[in-house]
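> example.struct
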């Protein structure tokens, strides 16, 4: 473990921290990191999905939760309106993320202002307005009311794969031209919405196709701070690009965790010349496994979607445990096999930063150990998640 996480990399991170500490107080920085981590754990994200009945709203709810339409706790789908009142669906791995399947907007009695009041508009971070063919005047009126309330909304055109399959039968079929025609048709129906909105074309059955990656990127870009981090963590891990976003978010997380470890009071690991808080490592490593879909439930869901046995997917995992296998014993064993153990690397690095991070058996050594272990673990988890995706696609 740890071949890619070098002494130079850790030293670079420590030097960066040392430079920042010239005009800051370590206690204040640690307290800020502690506060940010606590806020992240308590930050909620509520997403409202609305549109006419039969447009695939419930399927989109399931797709954003990384679920199939058939598994337990999935949003109910059907060709008739199955959503008569708003329904709450929590993310199966991250319960602070909630998707709300709102009642259909296609009734003659539809009044946007009353509709938003009835569905408790103030509770949502943003709205997704869904159509499977064209957007209607109801969708335009709804957007106007959402704008008045200073909320963001996004137009999503579903079932694009079905439309493309139909277009494919025509002579001189060109997929790009068909998609552009579809997008223009949707936008023409929304010309009364200002500024002119972007319409995302998606297929619920293959999230890599069409505009779904761009749609998620837009959601991430539009959210601020902690809400963005929560969304990135909960995104379905369907592509290397998504995995890259998750890795970048977790790298920022690692530094905060390592700083907090300075203040906890590092505990010497029996039999090893290292000191750190094992509990912090256990909790964070489990969190990383969940973020990257390396837990039993996520693998079972991927198995259903990809049509591959779970054992085949698990065979692609070379270095990482599943979330349930991360225990104190596992972490201690990992420490004993790391480059830090049996060498003086951690101690030598920490010695240079005692004035900044505190005593050798406290802040400095704890920071180095925690940073190194989590950085290495994140590298391995990312690689294994990529391997699992590749195996699923075979």
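> example.seq
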């Amino acid at each position: 473990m740890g071949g890619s996480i070098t002494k130079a990399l850790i030293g670079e991170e420590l030097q960066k921290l040392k430079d920042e500490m010239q005009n800051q107080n370590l206690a204040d920085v640690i307290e800020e990191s502690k506060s940010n981590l606590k806020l992240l754990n308590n930050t909620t994200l509520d997403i409202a999905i609305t549109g006419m009945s039969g447009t695939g709203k419930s399927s989109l709810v399931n797709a954003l939760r990384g679920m199939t339409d058939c598994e337990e706790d999935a949003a109910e789908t059907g060709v008739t309106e199955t959503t008569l009142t708003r329904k709450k669906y929590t993310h199966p791995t991250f319960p602070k993320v909630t998707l709300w399947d709102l009642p259909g907007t296609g009734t003659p009695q539809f009044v946007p202002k009353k509709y938003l009041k009835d569905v408790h508009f103030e509770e949502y971070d943003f709205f997704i307005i869904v159509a499977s063919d064209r957007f209607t005047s109801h969708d335009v009126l709804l957007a106007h009311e959402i704008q008045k309330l200073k909320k963001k909304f996004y137009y999503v055109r579903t079932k694009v794969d079905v439309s493309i399959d139909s277009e494919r039968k025509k002579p001189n079929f060109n997929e790009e031209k068909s998609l552009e025609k579809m997008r223009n048709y949707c936008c023409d129906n929304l010309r009364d919405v200002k500024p002119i909105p972007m319409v995302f074309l998606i297929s619920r059955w293959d999230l890599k196709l069409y505009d779904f990656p761009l749609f998620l990127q837009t959601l991430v870009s539009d959210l601020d701070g902690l809400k963005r981090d929560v969304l990135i963590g909960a995104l379905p891990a369907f592509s290397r690009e998504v995995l890259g976003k998750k890795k970048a978010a977790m790298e920022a997380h690692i530094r905060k965790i390592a700083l907090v470890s300075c203040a906890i009071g590092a505990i010497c690991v029996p039999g090893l010349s290292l000191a750190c808080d094992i509990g912090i490592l256990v909790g964070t490593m489990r969190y990383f496994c969940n973020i990257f879909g390396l837990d039993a439930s996520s693998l079972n869901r991927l198995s259903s979607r990809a049509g591959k046995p779970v054992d085949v997917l698990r065979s692609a995992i070379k270095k990482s445990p599943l979330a349930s296998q991360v225990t104190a014993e596992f972490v201690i064993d990992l420490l004993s096999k790391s480059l830090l153990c049996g060498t003086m690397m951690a101690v030598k690095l920490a010695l240079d930063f005692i004035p900044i991070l505190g005593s050798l058996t406290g802040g400095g050594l704890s920071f180095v150990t925690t940073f190194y272990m989590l950085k290495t673990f994140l590298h391995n988890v990312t690689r294994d998640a990529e391997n699992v995706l590749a195996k699923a696609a075979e």
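> remarks
Confidence is low (pLDDT under 50) at residues 357-361.
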